[in-house]
Amino acid sequence: MPITGYQIRAARSLVGIEQVALAEKAGVSANTIRNMEAFGAERVKVRTDTLDAVTDALKQAGVIFVDEGPSEGGPGVRISMLAKAYADGKEAHAKDPLKGQRTNPYVGQQSLSDEFYRGFQDAAKSV
User: pTM of the predicted model, to two decimals?
Assistant: First the structure.
C-alpha cells in the first residue's frame, strides 16, 4: 500500500512520538523521517526496507494505516485496539514498545500510553 508523508506525520502525532524517537525505533536517521514527511500528500519514495522499518515501528506503537479504499476520505491512519487488550488483561500479548517515549501535551510529560490504557482499564472495571 502506498504511504504518504502526511500519513507518517499523522501516525507519529497520533501516538505522540517525536521524529528522533521514531528514527531510533526504526533504525533510520531523523533526517530520513523528516524527508519522508516532506513528501506531504505524495507517495513516499524511499527504499522499501526503509519504509517498512518506519511503518513497522509505527504499527508496533498501535497505528493502523488506512488505504484510500472505497470511502471518500482517502488514505489515513487510526489507532489500533491495542489499548483494549490492556483493558482485557492481556498485557502479555500487547506490550508497549514505545512506553515512556510518547507524551500527551494535555497531561504534561506523562506517557500517553499510560494515560490511554488507564482510561480503558477504568472503563472496563465499571462495566
Answer: 0.63
